[in-house]
Design brief:
By secondary structure, the chain is mostly helical. It has one domain. It is about 55% helix and about 0% strand. It is built from seven helices and no strands. The longest helix is centred in the middle third of the chain and has 14 residues. One of its GO terms (molecular function) is phosphatase activity.
């Protein structure tokens, strides 16, 4: 007799779910480019705006490490942390899709 195991998929959105804010806005606020973002928002499509934001950060000497340090201070929802830990303890291994978001894997696991 073959017993089929049920497959469970648990999906978490990153912004405003795992973290209690929008990561793009958090980075802009913390690294001081909110004014530029607000100015360019009505003039560019989202991806172009994000490219421009990253170019501006680069021109100010900011690095990916600066962004990662900034994201370490982002507020995490304690209930979500508990949910992820519970899923992990039950042998469900959460996967974070976006590479910048994977920076949080070790933080969530601790």
């Amino acid at each position: 007799m073959v017993v089929a195991m049920a497959r469970v998929v648990i999906v978490f959105d990153f912004d405003k779910t795992i973290i209690d804010c929008d990561s793009d806005n958090w980075i802009m606020d913390e690294l001081g480019i909110t004014q530029l973002f607000t100015q360019l928002l009505p003039t560019l499509p989202w991806n172009s705006l994000m490219d421009r934001k990253l170019m501006e950060l680069h021109s100010q000497g900011k690095t990916i490490e600066d962004i990662a340090e900034c994201l370490k201070m982002v507020p995490l929802n304690p209930r979500i942390i508990s949910s992820i830990k519970s899923a992990h303890a039950s042998w469900y291994f959460p996967k974070l899709k976006n590479s910048i978001h994977t920076k949080f894997k070790s933080r969530l696991a601790s």
